[in-house]
Amino acid sequence: MFRFVLRRLLITVPMVLVVITLTWALIRLAPGNFYQNERPLPPTIEKNIRARYGLDKPWYVQYGRVMGGILRLDFGSSLRYENETVNDILRRTLPISAAIGTLAYLLALVVGITMGTLAALKQNSKTDYAAMALSMLGISVPNFVLGPILVLIFSLTLFWLPPARWGGFPSWNLVLPVLTLSAVYTAYIARLTRAGMLEVLRSDYIRTARAKGLTERQVVMRHALRGGLLPVVSFTGPALAILITGTVVVERIFAMPGLGNYFINANLSRDEPLILGIVAFTSMMVLIFNLLVDVAYGYIDPRVRY
Amino acid sequence: MIGIKTARLLTLIVAASLLLSACGQPIKKGEFFGKLTPPDGQVLRYISGSEPESLDPQMSSGQPEARVAIAMFEGLLEYHPKTLEPIPGIAERWANNSDASEFVFFLRHNARFSNGDPITARDFVYTMRRGLRPELASRVAFMAWDIKYAQAFNEGDAFVRDPKTGRFVLLSEAAGGEQPSAKTGVEGVADTEFNRLIHEPERLTVPGDEKDRAKKIKSDSKLAQLIAGKELVPVEAKDIGVEAVDDYTLRFVLRSPTPYFLGLAQHQFFRVIHEKTVERYGVNWTKPENIVCSGTHMLAEHKPYNQIVVVRNPYYWDAENVHLDKIIFYPLEEQTTMMNLYKAGEVDATYNHTVPASWLKAGLRYAKDYMDAPENGTQYWQLNTTKGPTADKRVRKALAMSIDRKALENFRVVSKANGGFVPSGILPGYQGPPGFITPDVEGAKRLLAEAGYKDASGKYDPSKFPAKELEITYNTSESNRQVGEFIQAQWKQNLGITIGLHSVETKTYFGMRARLDYKGIGAGAGWSGDYMDPYTYLGLFMTAGGDNGTGWYDPVYVKMVNDANREADQAKRYAMLAKAEEYLLDNAPVIPLLKPATSWMKKPYVKGMYPNPGTLHAWKFVYIEHDPSKWDQGMPDMTTPGLAD
Question: What ipTM does this complex have?
Answer without folding.
Answer: 0.86
